[in-house]
Amino acid sequence: MEELQHLTGQLAGYGSVIATILAVMLGGIAAVVMLYKLATSVINPAGHYARAMKVGFGTLYAMILVVTCLLAAEKIGLNVAGLGGPVILLVMVASVIVFFLLPFLPRLPFVVGDMVQIKDVMGTVEAMTAYQVVMRTFDGQTVFIPTAVAMASAIRNFSAIPHRRIEMKIDIYAADDIERARSMLLEKMNDNPKVIEDPAPAVYIVNVTGERASMVAYCWVENADWFATRDALWVAVSSTFAADDKVNLALPQLDVISAP
User: Fold this and answer.
1) Where are the transmembrane segments (predicted)?
2) pTM more than 0.85
3) Which end of the chain has fewer CB atoms < 10 Å from its terminal CB, N or C?
């Protein structure tokens, strides 16, 4: 009983120390998170500066851990005089080394929450262990894929970059006004608020036969808007072409020849 009271007294004595350490650590983490969100609003985290951002913010987190540990050691009475400078210098040197080694380090092809396609299964990664990858498909099925099989397969990660391209293949009649059709497609893509400006939407003529002119239209949207925007664009293009008297969609034709 006396030992329990002694232990309780010691824990009560360290209560203020624990509260101070937690306040420093949580405050530092919150500050780094806010700074990261501010930085990613200006700089694309998946662009040319991705490696620098990863190493930079990783260094800030390491600094917070170092400061928290030094503060805790000082509060419990340990002599940490002269340790702060060398430890911070060590963290900085390690960060520089990681910056140059990062491209050569292996990385996972996806993380939990990414939308991926493994073999013929497309969905969102819900969990990943050493034994299996758990995916939730868009029709609500839960699919378990052995990790060895997943890592040995070709993996398409649709969340690795923030934007995704929409491709629309359209055929019109070769006798129609091709430039008018191109302008109509560009107008519909530019009018959609989900389509981003850079890269700009584009339309190309890829083939012209005796009866048809084949066109392909490209535009880029945020990953989360891909399905809805593609649907909206197809509806808009179909309605616009149907209402125009100079451009018509070339629908498949079936020729029936009756024997004499």
Assistant:
1) 12-35, 55-73, 85-105
2) no
3) C
